């Protein structure tokens, strides 16, 4: 006998009521006088993946509020008064790094000069309203976060910042690409969680099944700590590392043969000197818990931050763009991981314009993608694919990638599409494929996005 049940509490003092519906869906009719509903489950979940919870308001209009899962078994839905909405907006929205109440752009002072804020993220808007406000079932709008795949159908979102100078109070989420659902994951993991931050990096080691989080910044505080999340035990640990590495933000971090390759980034200098950009390469060895600087030769990139780095064919790292205020770059460098030698890449075709804070993702053994970014004045929306065999750029245009974004996350993952045989048939036909996922980022109007955009990699490659 299945003792599993979903229950609701209406109001503050109401008794729990068991809800009767299908095994994977419950529907709740909310009395017009009730402003708060608590949903929770009790009993063994068995083979269930999730239970969809749906509210019906006084006019019998269904409002889907989310899913109960074995990891997140309770939901609270509360009707918002105007005062509550204003309070929630203050809590959920945050601003870009080193921003001000006037919401100017987080630009770093150039050496020897003072530079006014630019327009990026200037008006403090909130793009979450574009997709409907659902703070209980999806991340709040943000930029400067990381989205890290950990297996074929799961990615972990960490950190980020939205409007009004607050860092996200929902800093960790788990994305299931089977149904594109989010699960708040802050309480899933034990141990000391990383302090709120942006401009950090998070990379996954498939051999040890651990995520390594390094660096980042929080207002005028900078980090050089290493936090490790074991995705099997779901425990955080903070590494007491040996060796020296400066506090860095907006650097790149690549995993190669179990080590972290950290390149560039912004580091703080004592006042009154402005912050500086790094051109150094640091390597972290998790087995020895030690940082070291390797000997590299060749023509290495100039100091920069906000650039991207893609590991190709497990033997080369391609570094693109970035900036050292007030100069933006669109040059390309390649690090040969066997020779530890940098070289400038001479490219053909229409290259992306100079930019930083753009997104990048590997599409295949020979191709990676660059999308969006910030050119010093505006967020960008264009998309380019680079072919390492021919060293050529190709601009592609797809309707899914037309929104200007900077500080967003791009990843590629294996996903499954479900197609019902009929509207009344629960059986589905399943198609597997590789998909590009785009999350978050900010635009020129002060919007911080919380939507998840998907594009089939096959569609991207066919657009070349």
From TrEMBL:
<dbReference type="Pfam" id="PF13415">
    <property type="entry name" value="Beta-prop_FBX42"/>
</dbReference>
<feature type="region of interest" description="Disordered">
    <location>
        <begin position="74"/>
        <end position="132"/>
    </location>
</feature>
<keyword id="KW-0880">Kelch repeat</keyword>
<keyword id="KW-0677">Repeat</keyword>
<feature type="compositionally biased region" description="Basic and acidic residues">
    <location>
        <begin position="75"/>
        <end position="91"/>
    </location>
</feature>
<protein>
    <submittedName>
        <fullName>Kelch repeat-containing protein</fullName>
    </submittedName>
</protein>
<dbReference type="InterPro" id="IPR015915">
    <property type="entry name" value="Kelch-typ_b-propeller"/>
</dbReference>
<dbReference type="InterPro" id="IPR006652">
    <property type="entry name" value="Kelch_1"/>
</dbReference>
């Amino acid at each position: 006998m299945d003792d599993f049940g979903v229950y609701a509490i209406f109001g503050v003092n109401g008794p729990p009521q068991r809800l009767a519906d299908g095994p994977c869906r419950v529907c709740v009719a909310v009395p017009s006088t009730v402003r708060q509903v608590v949903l929770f489950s009790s009993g063994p979940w068995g083979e269930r993946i999730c239970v969809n919870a749906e509210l019906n308001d006084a006019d019998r209009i269904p409002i889907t509020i989310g899913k109960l899962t074995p990891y997140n078994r309770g939901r609270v839905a509360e009707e918002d008064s105007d005062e509550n909405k204003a309070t929630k907006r203050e809590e959920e929205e945050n601003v870009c790094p080193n921003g001000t109440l006037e919401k100017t752009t987080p630009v770093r002072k150039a050496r020897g000069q003072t530079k006014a804020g630019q327009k990026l993220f200037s008006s403090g808007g909130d793009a979450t309203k574009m997709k409907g406000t659902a703070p209980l079932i999806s991340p709040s709008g943000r930029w400067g976060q990381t989205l890290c795949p950990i297996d074929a159908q799961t990615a972990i979102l960490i950190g980020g910042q939205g409007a009004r100078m607050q860092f996200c109070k929902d800093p960790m989420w788990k994305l299931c690409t089977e149904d594109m659902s989010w699960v708040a994951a802050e309480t899933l993991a034990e141990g000391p969680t990383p302090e709120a931050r942006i401009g950090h990096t998070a990379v996954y080691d498939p051999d040890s099944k651990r995520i390594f989080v390094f660096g980042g910044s929080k207002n005028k505080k900078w980090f050089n700590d290493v936090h490790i999340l074991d995705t099997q035990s779901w425990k955080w640990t903070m590494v007491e590392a040996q060796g020296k590495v400066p506090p860095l933000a907006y650097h790149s971090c690549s995993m190669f043969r179990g080590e972290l390759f950290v390149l560039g980034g912004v580091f703080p200098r004592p006042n009154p000197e402005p912050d500086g950009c790094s051109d150094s390469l640091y390597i972290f060895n998790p087995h020895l818990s030690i940082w070291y600087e390797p000997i590299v030769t060749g023509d290495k990139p100039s100091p920069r931050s906000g650039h991207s780095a893609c590991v190709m064919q497990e033997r080369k790292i391609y570094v693109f763009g970035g900036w050292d205020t007030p100069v933006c770059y669109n040059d390309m460098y390649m690090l040969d991981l066997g020779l530890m030698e940098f070289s400038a890449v001479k490219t053909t075709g229409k290259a992306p314009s100079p930019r930083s804070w753009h997104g990048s993702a590997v599409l295949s053994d020979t191709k990676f993608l660059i999308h969006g970014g910030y050119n010093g004045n505006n967020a960008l929306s264009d998309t380019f694919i680079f072919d390492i065999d021919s060293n050529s750029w190709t601009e592609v245009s797809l309707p899914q990638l037309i929104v200007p974004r900077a500080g967003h996350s791009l990843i590629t993952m294996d996903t499954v599409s479900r197609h019902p045989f009929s509207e009344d048939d629960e059986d589905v036909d399943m198609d597997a494929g590789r998909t590009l996922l785009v999350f978050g980022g900010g635009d020129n109007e002060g919007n911080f996005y919380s939507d998840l955009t998907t594009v089939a990699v096959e569609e991207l490659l066919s657009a070349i």
